[in-house]
Amino acid sequence: MASPLEQEGSEADIAADLAVSAATTRGFHLSTVEFDDWLAERFVAHDFEVSRVPFDELDHWTFADDSGNLTHRSGRFFTVEGLRVRATDGAVPEWHQPIINQPEIGILGIVAKRFGGVLHFLMQAKMEPGNVNLVQLSPTVQATKSNYRRAHGGNEVAYLHHFIGPRRGKVIVDVLQSEHGSWFYRKRNRNMVVEVADHVEVGHDFCWLTLGQINELLARDYVVNMDSRTVLSCLPASSVPAWSRDATLPGAHRSTHALLRWLTERQVDSELDAQRVRLTDLPEWNRTDWEITRGDGRFFSVVGVSVRAGSREVSSWHQPLIEQHGYGIVAFVVTEFRSVLHVLVRATMEAGFLGAIELGPTVQCVPANYAPGNAPFLLDYVMAAGPERIRYAASHSEEGGRFRNAASQYMIIEADETLPKLLPADYTWVAAGQLAELLRHSHYVNVQARSLVAFLKTLP
């Protein structure tokens, strides 16, 4: 017979439970102050090392004779391929680039359980070779299909049974979301939160935290990883009382129906043709013994690394990573229309999206890639914001399993009277609750904007 937790709870009950957890900043197992010592202990408890190596020293990786693509000898995990992109909209009508093709759908899953009646979330101190500080707070399970099917020959992925097969509890979140469309080709992950009632054995690298504690940690630099942020962003919007009726309030700038119609129009008007090509057939890109990079040094490189990590399913391995050139800026500009919080979003085109466009941040760029006087719209506006207008600012890593030292300053900026009244056609205001409601569905909100939604939920 199915346990009570295998039944779907009402949205109102789930929202109330999440709101209580968000208001609880003293966990039953670990205080936020104790968390710092715990995370430091987990870092020194294992042997971690990441070092650059030339391509010919990447064990099990090779450049294929037929395609020139960088592939794993097992045929699993991912490949680094070439992409030719033609776009009808945007400053650059055509370009070429390397891109990661990882067609598997991975699982990003967080186990939830009640202690003292309050929902706690099982989080993991996980080492990823591309993280700025290596170890960050990740979901309970963060694994590609190759990993959890043990293509690497290593240990089983802990807690996986809570997310696949018949032993699930009450599902709070279950939705496919895109990954970084600039560096992944049509990559998707299954974002999940599952509440369980049974006893859960807690491994050394795992801890229970309330949503309130996690929200406090989201304000810190390089603590909560990207995969945790995207799952947290998908929690029901109704758990944030101020957002619970944003989609229907008269103060919303657009109805949800009108917003989706606007997005459809942008999809139609912004045609994009992305074709996979040989990695060796990329104009302006050069391959050396150590990297694949543009002649002008802009955007990113593909590099190889040797990794040692005692806490992972496999203790050592080699792999390619994409290395970002420069420090990113990712920002929402926000304001209120008739007492309803709104976010200025952009219909963002990225070559690797399953569809051409998803809703993205107001600003999403690496400023170093742009010549003076050619900055993206509102970058200068965001960078000039005084402290009285900055509601959130912290530095965060991007996907540390595939990107090396890819970091951005994430910001939420209050609009003022100097914000241009006339916006380009690919920008619009969206009620915060509407944006969060769209995260119940796939391929509407990009991964950078999802992080910002997670941060928005922490603000008073």
UniProtKB/TrEMBL annotation:
InterPro entries xref list: EvaA-like, EvaA-like_sf
Organism classification: Bacteria, Bacillati, Actinomycetota, Actinomycetes, Pseudonocardiales
Residues annotated as domain dTDP-4-dehydro-6-deoxy-alpha-D-glucopyranose 2,3-dehydratase: 33-235, 257-456
Protein name, entry field: NDP-hexose 2,3-dehydratase family protein
Provenance organism: Amycolatopsis plumensis
Coiled-coil spans in chain: none
Lineage top rank: taxon: Bacteria
